[in-house]
Design brief:
Length: 367
């Protein structure tokens, strides 16, 4: 996008006194932000945010066999071994307080060491998870309050595929911006997968995605019903772990079934829209015949960016200058001087920026 404005232009026309006040305000604002950032960091550490992500040292357990955690249940986890067999496993007391997540590589003991009398789903646990290997990547979103600062989505993925349907549910670019932010935070490559392309005419160019196209983001249009776009996805799946993220009903599981025939994952029906209930209820690690792995996840209402680093936003909104990124709240998206092609992008930036800085007022975390 060509920049049609100079930052601060409108203020330059004003008198010197005003500019000095303005500059003082900006300085104190910036100090306040810095203090707030430092506080945020200390708080998150202090409130267990850091410790929640920290894993106990796994090196004493390297002699144990390794497996991948492919699904979490309320009281146990499913592990997949190298030969693709699946074991039901409980967690050792050594992992108390550790949040395990789909995609974790774990060390397990084949013989249950504790509580062998437990029976889950009419099955006896065959193993116990003793340790978790360091994670290559960790995809997380902001939690609801400081007691649970993060919600973990999956570990050890390479790419986030943000799924957005043409219709049912309607396409929301805001969710894609949030997903891109989480991908950046986790160090995952980001890709937009448009689903249900058959539900719009070929003439419909999906203009909602124009601002994202202009950022050069990879966008792939697919239809699980017509089979279009699937070959490209299969090629991508040759060498990577991709996690599907999106609203409930966009067709994530239908896409999985189209890519992996025979998998038989449950998919929803039209009557479910608006009920607020997902068809998929737990994330699942699904190795593919193409070499890589897909992770299907339950539909989300939104992706909170609370507590994430505001500097990520310069990559999500590269069209804005560093001055806007540093404190977007002082700019008016509809200011004619800014002459923005997509004022709604500045509104999005303002929302995410503010949310990243949000603390829970009831938690008394500001010391
Ligand atoms: N026309 C059309 N319908 C589709 C397509 N993909 C999925 N659907 C329909 O969309 C509905 C929801 O699909 P799901 O795969 O269950 O959606 P999901 O994203 O997995 O939903 P959650 O598990 O709740 O997160 C089903 O009725 C599918 O038949 C598509 O490419 N074209
Ligand atoms: Mg699903």
């Amino acid at each position: 996008m060509t920049r049609k404005f100079r930052l601060g232009q409108s203020r330059e026309a004003e008198d010197l006194d005003h500019r000095e006040v303005y500059s003082r305000e900006r300085k104190s604002d910036s100090k306040r932000r810095q203090q707030s950032a430092e506080r945020t960091q200390t708080d998150i550490e202090g409130q267990g945010g850091g410790s929640m992500l920290r894993l106990p040292d796994a090196t004493p357990w390297l002699h144990l066999p390794e497996a991948i955690l492919i699904q979490r249940h309320s009281q146990w986890v499913d592990l997949e071994l190298a030969d693709r067999s699946v074991l039901l496993a409980t967690l050792s007391g050594k992992l108390k307080g550790v949040k395990l997540v789909v995609g974790d590589r774990v060390r397990y003991s084949p013989v249950p060491l504790e509580q062998p009398e437990l029976v889950f789903d009419k099955k006896l646990p065959q193993a116990q998870v003793i340790a978790v290997s360091p994670r290559r990547t960790l995809l997380k979103r902001g939690g609801i309050d400081d007691r649970e600062p993060w919600q973990l989505i999956c570990a050890n993925a390479d790419e986030l595929w943000a799924c957005a349907a043409v219709v049912d549910p309607p396409m929301r670019p805001g969710l894609l911006e949030r997903a891109q932010t989480l991908a950046l935070d986790a160090g995952l490559r980001f890709r937009i997968i448009v689903t249900k392309r058959d539900r719009a005419t070929a003439k419909d160019t999906l203009p909602e995605l124009d601002p994202l196209r202009e950022q050069g983001l990879p966008i792939l249009e697919t239809s699980a019903t017509h089979g279009s776009g699937l070959d490209e996805l299969k090629l991508l799946l040759a060498d990577r772990v991709a996690v599907l993220v999106g609203h409930s009903g966009v067709g994530k599981s239908t896409l999985v079934n189209a890519l992996l025939p025979g998998m038989g994952i449950r998919t929803g029906d039209i009557s479910r829209y608006g009920t607020g209930r997902q068809t998929t209820t737990a994330a699942k690690w699904l190795p593919t015949p193409y070499g890589g792995t897909l992770i299907d996840t339950p539909g989300i209402r939104t992706l909170s960016v609370r507590g994430l680093n505001q500097t990520l936003l310069s990559h999500v909104f590269p069209e804005f200058s560093s001055e806007i990124i540093e404190d977007p709240s002082t700019f008016d998206p509809f200011d004619e001087q800014l002459d923005l092609d997509y004022p709604e992008r500045l509104q999005s930036l303002q929302r995410l920026w503010k949310e990243m800085d949000t603390r829970n007022p009831n938690q008394n975390v500001h010391r």
